[in-house]
Design a protein that fits this description.
The chain has 18 helices and 7 strands. By secondary structure, it is an alpha/beta fold. The chain has a 4-stranded mixed β-sheet, covered by helices on one side. A hairpin with an 8-residue loop joins strand 3 and strand 4.
């Protein structure tokens, strides 16, 4: 990436924060220990959630050192629990089903409904219209079924009408047959598309109630939020830059907005989320968990060990190794790779994304095609980690 223009978004995304509470609660009620561990005392390890980049980090890092944040999290959970209990006792279990649907069954990522809400361009529930929800539903559906692979990656889609057209005119039978979703999950997603208005009518009051809880207690974090913003700006977004470098995001599509928006998430305090797709109309967004940078600084060696292990795991997967082996010859575009490796587009897209997030692949655009190639720096970084390890270095 030749020019990286970062912009700090100091607005709190209350729809995304409400989605964080919804996700947290949904994992808690699914957990086997919920009777022993009240939700407002449950750590994220007990709720089972990670983003790959910070997988297993809580095995090393004591969140208890951040008492002000714990007070905030416990307060919003305590106030939110009766709201959520009432909602899910009122014939709304189909909404839980949408939370538990994951692309390629990867539970380290957001489920369908959480992804939809977390990536909305609207920040507050009052402004979140039926039209906004309908568009977000179509965007998320398109991304889950890899319809964005059919879009010119160098241009993207220019407006919401193009997104609606892309989804409405796709060959549903072909798209669904190539997906990795179960027939039951496909039916649930199609039902959500068809019944989006009723779904919105049920969801909006819940999101509004959760938003009000967060707004009531956010004063507990006022000082820490301001310091986090200040740290990002005074460091010239060094942490965000290091993330992009680690994942090999060096080649930005020429005709897409080059501004990289950086924002914070409060409830999902240890996430690193990169949002970029040809179905998104606003370029690349990086969402950082509120304590992510603090946690990594607290025990940097443990973080490096986690990253090292994750990269070894990525290369140990036979499918991903086949992709790398093929890309040693020359760059390939997605359809070529799928044909050469006899993989469905959905399966290939999943493995490509994993290799990109581990910094082993880069891509460039030529016309309407995205070409993937090996990223030399990713392998060099892994080689340095091996050398450090073999020379007696340790991460603890």
């Amino acid at each position: 990436m030749e020019t990286q223009n970062f912009k700090l978004d100091k607005n709190i995304n209350y729809i995304g924060e409400a989605a964080g509470l919804l996700r947290s609660y949904s994992f808690w009620i699914q957990g086997i220990n919920k009777r022993q561990v009240p939700w407002d005392q449950a750590r994220l390890t007990e709720e089972f959630f990670s983003t790959g980049l910070l997988e297993n980090m809580e095995n090393y890092l004591p969140i208890e050192d951040f008492s002000d944040y714990l007070e905030f999290l416990k307060a919003v959970k305590s106030l939110s629990q009766p709201i959520l209990e009432e909602f899910f006792s009122a014939d709304n279990e189909d909404i839980l089903d949408l939370i538990y649907i994951y692309k390629n069954n990867d539970k380290n990522q957001y489920g369908f409904l959480i992804d939809l809400l977390s990536s909305s361009d609207q920040l507050e529930v009052e402004a979140y219209s039926l039209e906004d929800f309908h568009l977000d539903l179509y965007k998320t559906f398109g991304e889950f079924f890899d319809l964005d692979d059919e879009v010119d990656q160098g241009v993207g889609l220019s407006d919401s009408e193009e997104i609606f057209k892309l989804v409405k005119t796709c060959d549903y039978i072909e798209v669904l047959s190539k997906s990795n979703f179960s027939p039951e999950d496909i039916l649930k997603l199609i039902k959500a598309l068809d019944g989006y208005e009723k779904l919105y009518i049920r969801l909006k009051p819940l999101l509004k109630a959760l938003e009000e809880v967060i707004k009531e207690k956010i004063y507990l974090l006022a000082g820490r939020i301001e310091n986090s913003f200040k740290d990002l700006e005074t460091s010239d977004f060094a942490f965000a830059r290091s993330i992009l470098k680690d994942v090999g995001f060096e080649k930005y599509p020429e005709k897409i907005d080059h501004t990289i928006k950086v924002s914070l998430r409060l409830v999902d305090y240890n996430v690193i989320t990169l949002m970029f797709s040809s179905l998104r109309l606003n370029g690349l967004n990086i969402c950082l968990g509120f304590l992510t940078q603090d946690l990594i600084k607290f025990k940097e060696s443990a973080y490096k060990e986690t990253v090292f292990q994750r990269k070894l795991k990525a290369l140990g997967d036979p499918t991903r190794f086949s992709i790398i082996n093929l890309l040693r010859k020359r760059p390939y575009y997605l359809q070529e790779l799928a044909q050469e490796l006899h993989l469905s587009p959905a399966t290939l897209s999943y493995h490509i994304n994993q290799l990109q997030m581990d910094g082993f692949l880069s891509y460039s655009t030529q016309g309407r095609r995205s070409y993937y190639s090996l990223r030399k720096e990713g392998f060099e970084d892994l080689e340095k980690s091996f050398e450090y390890f073999l020379q007696g270095g340790h991460y603890d």
